[in-house]
Design a protein that fits this description.
The chain is of the alpha+beta class. The protein has a domain at about 120-345 and about 470-525 and about 535-555 and about 630-650. The chain is about 35% helix and about 15% strand. It has helices at about 5-10, 40-50, 75-110, 130-140, 145-160, 200-210, 220-235, 240-250, 255-270, 300-310, 315, 320-330, 340, 370-380, 395-415, 425-435, 435-445, 560-570, 575-580, 605-610, and strands spanning about 120, 125, 170-180, 185-190, 255, 295, 345-350, 350-355, 360-365, 470-480, 485-490, 540, 545-555, 585-590, 595-600, 615-620, 625-635, 635-640, 650. The strands form four sheets. A seven-stranded antiparallel beta sheet has the order 1-18-17-13-12-9-8. Keywords: Membrane, Transmembrane, Transmembrane helix. GO terms for molecular function: glutathione hydrolase activity.
């Protein structure tokens, strides 16, 4: 296998798959596979057992293997020399450990230097895209609530205030870090295809040609997911977590600029009153849509929240609320049933883990989230031994962006071969995404003076038909005891299916549009299946198990690359947190054709230089992504909410 450093000098005139590209599917068409080059994860795990935290292969002796036997026999001199040797070794080990720890802390401290825009706290922080929701989470922490308690309240609040982006009718992926036990877990509350999502359903969806409407709604997972998180990690009573949100729904909140923009765009299609469901809460007395700053009162949702707070998650899946929802679905001609709701369950387990550098570890949710692709991109980029200089303006930054775009292409190529983990045939691609060896091979294959290829098939992409829009929110929590939560929640499009329940105040998601409707895709819609998602909020911890970064974003497929860039620029590039969030962004994916876009305002000279390398970048003038992040800097906590959506952190 070529070394990672080989990528610096590598120059190619043809794509590597014409003579040795690192391809799991060597010698086959883009949609075919070959067992000949399949990654052996047993070999991979065995190799990882002899790798250091910096990812460099150790010798047997360095890895703790057998040392040569000495020739001193049993003499007393041997005992003395051996004792002295052991003492020296122990002292050396302690010194190295202390210096290593100091180096790690110095690195973390430098990452927060010169950050004048982030909010700084001493104990804990909560970050969301709405100030009032961040404050609610902070208040829960100050009352003795857990990190999960705070995340639940903040997430419920976002579902109210930014109902266009998330809510009870959607789902989420959550990563939880338990500092006391140094363990990480995930909760997959992703929506699930109803039992009626059969071949006839797929045909009708394709014929309709619309990504919204009642039959775009999958079984919501939000409520069950929050309940399950609280059952395992909650401290305060479940009902108490709802109280401030119910109060806000009844008294009213001020419409945000993002809400006004969403309503404006909906009215470009047709008047709000012509959409299915009840939209009166977003209308002024004269019938015009509400503007930023207008008061919005949501009594129906307040009543639903109260019922769930008293009766638990069963209220949503088998109780009166469930019946109200299904009555409306049937009236609109939908396929969702009470049995679909009652049979819904979350998935949970250990989070994905991947070493970054200097003992740092990335924690992310597994498929069908975007966590595996996030992990892959970070692994590829980490192979280049990036330093602060690689993120400073100049030739090094051009090279970093070039490598990042190429790593993203390869990541999205593999992503097209993944889906719900329970789908047959996806494990090989998931294994490749998790393999550090494979990431190094990809890194070594990326030329420095040109793109790898202009043909997407060389990146192992499969045909797919999916949507590219999205409405999503994110919550980060770092508690005083070191616990952390990163949760990304969504109803898919802005206002999901474009249907608001009049009886419950819930927005129906349109997550069925996240499935591919190409039957060759592993993300093809099937009953009981979960659609592929880009959501992948993550946590980074250091070698001592202390949280260094909690981050996540909204932005459809760009979530994956945006999260990766924030991790790389802060943890490896020592870029101040606010600068990493505020900086103009860049993205590459496969749809299946290669698509590369940059945020309006991105440095034009940088774009020109990337163009000379073969990149074909298109400007995006609308909101590119919305990032929420918390970073530890020595004994301080820096928190920053993306100004693109006007959020603000809270903490103490």
């Amino acid at each position: 296998m070529a070394s990672a450093s080989a990528a610096v000098e590598l120059e190619q005139k043809e794509p590597l798959n014409k003579g040795g590209r690192p391809n799991l599917y060597e010698g086959k068409g883009p949609a075919e596979t070959s067992n000949e080059n399949e990654i052996s994860m047993n070999e991979f795990r065995g190799k990882m057992a002899t790798e250091g935290s910096d990812g460099k292969t150790q010798t047997d002796a360095e890895a703790g293997g057998s040392a040569p036997k000495s020739g001193f026999g049993g003499s007393w001199k041997c005992c003395i020399l051996l004792t002295v040797g052991l003492l020296v070794a122990i002292v050396f080990t302690v010194v190295v450990a202390v210096l290593s720890s100091q180096t790690t802390h110095q690195n973390m401290r430098s990452k927060g230097a010169n950050d004048q825009k982030s909010s700084v706290y001493q104990n804990a922080a909560v970050v969301t895209d709405t100030e009032i929701c961040s404050t609610m989470g902070k208040d829960i922490l100050e009352r003795g609530g857990s990190a999960v308690d705070a995340a639940i309240t903040s997430q419920l609040c976002i579902g109210l205030v930014n109902g266009q982006s998330s809510g009870l009718g959607g789902g989420f992926f959550m990563v939880i870090y338990d500092a006391a036990n140094a363990t990480s877990h995930f909760i997959d509350a992703r929506e699930t295809a109803p039992a009626g999502a059969n071949e006839a359903y797929v045909a009708s969806r394709l014929a309709a040609g619309s990504p919204t409407g009642i039959n775009s709604t999958a079984v919501p997972g939000e409520v069950r997911g929050l309940w399950d998180a609280h059952q395992k990690y909650g401290k305060l009573p479940w009902e108490d977590l709802f109280t401030p949100v119910i109060d806000l729904a009844e008294k009213g909140y001020r419409a945000s600029a993002h809400l006004e923009d969403t309503l404006r765009k909906m009215e470009l299609v047709k008047p709000l009153s012509d959409y299915d469901g009840a939209w009166d809460i977003y209308l002024r007395e004269d019938g015009s849509r509400k503007r930023e700053g207008d008061l919005v009162i949501n009594i129906a949702l307040a009543n639903t929240l109260r019922a769930i707070s008293v009766n638990g998650s069963d209220e949503f899946y088998t109780g009166a609320t469930a019946q109200k929802l299904i009555d409306e679905v049937e009236e609109l001609g939908g396929i969702l049933t009470l049995r679909d709701l009652s049979s819904y369950s979350t998935r949970s387990g250990n989070a994905l883990t991947s070493p970054i550098r200097d003992g740092m570890m990335l924690l992310a949710p597994p498929s069908p989230s975007g966590g595996a692709v996030l992990q892959f991109i970070v692994n590829v980029m980490s192979s280049f031994n990036l330093t602060r200089e690689d993120f400073q303006p100049g030739p090094n930054l051009v090279r970093t962006y070039h490598r990042f775009l190429e790593a993203s292409r390869f990541g999205f190529g593999l992503r097209s071969r993944t889906g719900d983990e329970e789908t047959p045939g996806v494990q090989q691609a998931l294994d490749a995404l998790a393999s550090i060896d494979y990431a190094r091979e990809i890194a070594a294959s990326i030329p420095t003076n040109r793109v790898y290829s202009t043909n997407s098939s060389y990146y192992n992409v499969m045909p797919q038909i999916t949507t590219t829009l999205g409405g999503t929110s994110h919550v980060n929590v770092l508690a005083a005891n070191g616990d952390a939560v990163s949760s990304t929640t969504s109803v898919n499009y802005r206002f999901g299916s474009k249907i608001r329940s009049g009886s419950t105040g819930i927005i129906y998601n349109n997550e069925m549009s996240d499935f591919s409707y190409d039957s060759a895709s592993p993300n093809y819609a099937r009953p009981g299946k979960r659609p592929l998602s880009a959501m992948c909020g993550s946590i980074v911890i250091d070698r001592e198990g202390r949280v260094q970064l909690v981050e996540g974003s909204a932005g459809s497929k760009k979530i994956i690359t945006v999260n990766a860039w924030v991790i790389l620029s802060t943890m490896l590039g020592e870029v101040p947190l606010s600068q990493a969030v505020d900086g103009k962004l860049i993205h590459a994916e496969l749809r299946p054709d290669i698509v590369e876009i940059y945020e309006s305002g991105f440095d034009q000279d940088m774009i020109d230089q990337l163009t000379t390398l073969g990149h074909d970048l298109t400007e995006q003038k609308t909101i590119f992504a919305v990032i929420q992040a918390i970073m530890r800097s020595d004994d301080e906590i820096h928190a920053y909410s993306d100004p693109r959506k006007g959020g603000k952190p809270a903490g103490y």
